[in-house]
Amino acid sequence: MRLPRLKFKFMDDGNVLRGPRLGAAPCLAMNAAPEDLAAARLAMVDEQIWRRNISDENVLAAMRQVPRHEFVPAELRNRAYEDLPLPIGEGQTISQPYIVAAMTAALRLRGTEKVLEIGAGCGYQGAILGCLAREVCTIECRPELAAQASERLARLGYVNVHVHCGDGTLGLAELAPFDAILVAAAGPSAPAPLMDQLSADGRMVVPVGDTENQELHLIERVGGIFRTTILEPCRFVPLVGAHGWKDFPFR
Which of the residues 95, 150, 189, 199 is marked catalytic? Predict the structure, then answer.
């Protein structure tokens, strides 16, 4: 199934910070006060997410609640609420706020689900999922990022989000099935082990494509049948692993 293309900006999580984008919120001062950061977060949700037709009130509430500035390097905290991905080290990024909201909304979480996230990164997407699901398991293949994300999530109180280090394309078979799976990196196809680990009525959102063209896929399992809806174009860092890219094809 293919939905009509929505007229949103191209979602680009594969490029590093290149400066403010047109329409981005003004940069905060390096020593921004907590109330200024809170105001910037509310403006982010209103201007970057709600106005782009993300209407799930639970998703909007989670985006208003989770402090994105806590998940970016200290030198970039003044840009935490801008409409763009930011580098977090080891060639990885924290996703653009809109794409975090869009992918989360596509899963239609209601609070009872067990969710698997592939690509923990800095832990921000996991924190958003943790506000909306019963339990979140998130996998990061880079040990240093995994350790940092685990410490950060614990410090901020996201006790239902559990970080694992390993090959995310293999999933976590010992903890399956999962009601929802979110893949925060782009592969040539949806990894077969993740498809197998979806519950009978589970949903997965995953960027699929090559180095030049990727699309966000929503895969819904109905018994033994998988139904795919193509949502919109996107660009992510590569999904590396046994069922992803074997090396880094994106430059």
Answer: 95
